[in-house]
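Quick question about two entries, pasted in order.
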Amino acid sequence: MPGVKTPLTPLQYLTYAAIVSAWTSGNYLGNTFCSSFINQDPNRAADFSQLSAALYRQLAWDGLNTNISSYDAGMISAADRNGGNQAQIGVCKATPVCGVFLTYRNQYRKVHVNGKAAATSQLYGPGGGPATDVYLNTDPRVFGVLKESTIVHETLHSISGLYDAWPESEQISDDLNLENLMGLPVPGKQCQGIPCPCKKGTVCISVAIWNHFCSVN
């Protein structure tokens, strides 16, 4: 049976759109603290310069009720998809989008998920176009506290095509991913005297965006 890609309800969409509008009107990229952070790295600056255009074309979906595979949703890097990384392709084909937010059973086993993730995004635009889709956790306990930094974080995925960190199947922790693009320490290494934005997990990217005054929350 084909999977289902579920739109947000009108009220959910208005909530999401209000967050995007608030971030856009806040002109955070123009403040001294955020712009200094962005311009520390040319790759970071290049991605942040595309944020406004990427948010304009972004399409938000109900991730909790979308059960197409992560592969069909484009939640795989172009390098993995086009390069034939069978391990990562297999993981994405076996994982439904809702599996980011809910415990699910694939053809191999039951996969336990804590349900705290707020969103996930498309890395690869099917058909070769830009990645546009963001999938939101519409559980009211999570959706009700959706933050600007989360939306910015997910949009950076769509711009860069990068994972938060390399999947376990790749084992290339020193290569470019969104965590080190944001200046976060390589997993398992010390912060080299610099205070870490948070202990662990992909939320650290969102926290770094907020800590550098690139969003209000």
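Here is the second entry:
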Amino acid sequence: MLIFDFSYLSQIIISMKSYILLLMFMLTFGSMIAQRNNPIVPDQRLYEVFEEEFIQMIERENQNLLLYYNLYLTNSFEIIELPEGKSESLKLYKKLNIPDGASIKEINVLKFKLDLLEDKPSYYRMGDGKKILRFKSAKAFNEEYNAERLKHQLIIE
């Protein structure tokens, strides 16, 4: 007659549960430590459009959103100067109230209602000058955003 010792089996199950809990604990705190070691600092231009409480909340609780806003402010567009003879085409683009001499670090694109396209760049005129803001397509920007999320260990590949 075969007699099975269930106490041994229960010890194995308890041991497995302990290992699983330990693994979950390590993964959770590992990602928290990684975020602390690689903190995302809010771009100062966020304070021009959001309440300080909101910025503090996303800094604490939603690093993905903070990264998105920071990246949108710095990497979603570029400044293009039109060559001589092309200034008549400026009238085709919607004008944004941005000084012509402003740099990317000075422009707060969150202040404007922009219509960005999914697969093509969008263009806006800077004030009355000869410069244009060229925004990346939503698809291109999201690819760059996801690459940054990987770099900051906010997602796992």
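Reply: Helices lie at 6-37, 52-61, 63-75, 138-151. The chain has four helices and four strands. Hope that helps.
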